[in-house]
Design brief:
Blueprint: H1 2-21, E1 27-29, H2 32-45, E2 54-57, H3 74-79, H4 81-90, E3 95-97, E4 107-110, H5 115-122, E5 125-128, E6 132-133, E7 139-149, E8 152-163, E9 166-169, E10 177-178
Parallel strand pairs: 1-3, 2-4
Antiparallel strand pairs: 5-7, 6-7, 7-8, 8-9, 8-10
């Protein structure tokens, strides 16, 4: 009786150790409104005429600095306060993007650990944070960026408002990183 119990304890400890050692354990990101926003930004910022698939980093971005006065106008920071709080809450976890993008260009979702081998073949990759929404899901903020190889790339926060059922980008972002 003692040997089976010891075997079970060893298996449980191995599983718990593996989970504890995996700092990038993540959950699927299933937020339909977020994918509408992502699709809008991708369609606007990425070349859609190319046949080369767009590479999208699977894990949501958690590395960008906290949203604050340095990147938003005071008016925007006040207006989007609830969306910013939601984004900061979501960014404490790592999320896995799903194949819910509605874009014309073919795309692949690639794990961050595989980007080094995959991105050079595509000319770069895109990455994004989860989307922070206000309670009514009429205001949103997202951090979106793209790396196009070498020192080429850009990233910034985007503020969006849902007007007549459509997401539209609105002014208020004061900082952009471009190289």
């Amino acid at each position: 009786m003692r040997a089976p119990r010891l075997g079970l304890i060893v298996v449980v400890l191995n599983v718990l150790t593996a989970v504890a050692q995996n700092p990038i354990a993540s959950r699927p990101y299933d937020a339909p409104e977020a994918y509408r926003i992502y699709s809008l930004l991708i369609a606007r910022e990425e070349a859609s005429g190319t046949k080369v698939p767009l590479v999208i980093r699977e894990e949501t971005d958690t590395s960008a600095s906290a949203v604050g006065g340095a990147c938003l106008s005071p008016e925007a920071a006040k207006r989007f306060k609830d969306s910013i709080s939601d984004l900061e809450r979501l960014r404490t976890k790592l999320w896995r993007l799903q194949r819910h993008f509605q874009i014309e260009r073919p795309y692949e979702i690639v794990s961050g650990k595989d980007l080094a081998s995959r991105a050079p073949l595509s000319g770069g990759y895109s990455f994004m944070s989860p989307v922070g929404f206000n309670k009514n899901k009429t205001l949103a903020i997202v951090y979106y960026g793209s790396i196009c190889g070498g020192l080429c790339g850009q990233e910034k926060f985007h503020l969006l408002e849902k007007i007549n059922g459509q997401w539209k980008e609105v002014p208020g972002v004061t900082g952009v990183t471009v190289s």
